[in-house]
Every structure is written in C-alpha cells, then in structure tokens.
User: What shape does this take?
Amino acid sequence: MKPSLLALATLTVALAHGAGLPATTAVHVEASTQSAVATYLKAGEEPRPAPGATAPAGWLAVELPGPFEVYVENKDLTKSLDVRPGAALRQAPKADAPILVTAGPAEKATLTGIRGRWTQLSLERPLVGFIQTTGIAPVPAPVRPETPAGATAPAPVNPGVYGSATAGQPVAMVNLGDGGSSSLPRQYAGRFVSTRRPFAPRRPYDYALLDDSGQRFAYLDVSRLLQTEQVEKYVDLPVNVYGTARPGPDGREIILTVETLQLR
Assistant: This one.
C-alpha cells in the first residue's frame, strides 16, 4: 500500500525539525526497499545523519553505531581467527541470509559463538544505513536469526562488555582482525566444566568454558595456574577467566590459556 500524503508530510517535517520519527522505521543497507534491513529505529528516535555520506532523492543516509550481530562462514576465518577481507557478513547463519556488509581490511569484530560451520561475530564499527524520507509505514519487529533446536537465542552483545551474562548470550570475547590482538590477554565469562567422562576418550584439555546456551566455547589450558589442584572447585560454576585465546590445531576449536580464574 502506498503511503498517504499525510504520512509523507509528517515524516519530512519531523526529520527537518528534529522531532524524531513518527513511527518505527526500517534502516536498509542500501537506498532500496529491496535491500536487507540493518536495524529498526523506534518512533520518536532521531536519526543521526552519516557524515560525508550521500543518498539519492527520497532517502537519508544515517549512521548506525552498532554493535551488529553477524555471521561468517568458518572458511572465511584465518588460522589466527581474523576475518578475511571481502568475506560476507550475514544476518543469520545461513548461506541465503541477507548480507549486512562485507568485511574490510583488519575488520574490527568480536567472536561471540560457534554455530556449526558458521562463526557468530559482534561487528564493532559503525555502519551507514538508509531510511526513506518520502514515506513511512509501521513495520513489524525484527525477526531474530533461527537457532538450533534446544538452543537459546543469543541476546544482542553489549559494546565493550566481555562475557556479559545476560540470558541466552554466548560467551564473548575474542577480538578479531585488529593485527593479532587475539593473542592479548582479556576477560571471558561462562560456565566452567570438566571434559572428563568415565569410559570415554580423554579430551585435549580437561576443562572447557560453556556459553550461556550450554555449548562449548573453548577448551581451557590451566597449566599456568599456580594452584591447579584447586581448579576442581570451579566445576559447573559461572566464572570469569582472564587469559589469551588461540585456535586449536584443526582450526575449529578455541583454546584459552588461563592466567586467572574467579567465580562470577
């Protein structure tokens, strides 16, 4: 249905006078209603014009500060856990999911989970989006990406928070694509578990860190801890881990070398 003349005039006047949007508005990744929707701006929210960006008639280029939840195929990660430049960063862990943006050189992102052959990231940098200024119509709430059966849908990742423990949010954070900062120590949060099982082959490491959906985020190398005999007291408890991350030998696992371990 085409927007009414009243709706057209309302939006144009509202934007011109800084009164905010009259209704929930989709922000597209391109100046086309056929392009993917990056996010939604709520009614009353004032769009932030993107500095230096241009838009065709009937559209406004706006700055989106992020972070953004995106997914990249595991094959598009290097052995050092960097995102390959030009890799498609999609809005869901599916090959036909809309592409939010393509990765640039030394992309600033945070690894927040593993979903089979997909890696979930929190994209840190701001993006440029486009909203229509020639009309507005209410839109439905954004649909969250599909999650595997039995898993909890991840919540948005808060910028600058490592291992936030909100319900359903995967463990963070391995910084990617910033010149090898994955080798720098930082803090992670999750549930500390033992990987040892009776009559089962021994895992590469005796302990692991689970995300909030109960999936293994990383194996834990506790060899640097001074009192390794006390590690067992943390089993099945929420913890904060401070250490460094590295990819496993096969490139599919993450190994955290633990420097300190504390209850959350």
The chain has three domains: 5-65+128-132, 68-124, 180-263. DSSP finds one helix and 15 strands in the chain. The two ends are 52 Å apart (CA to CA).
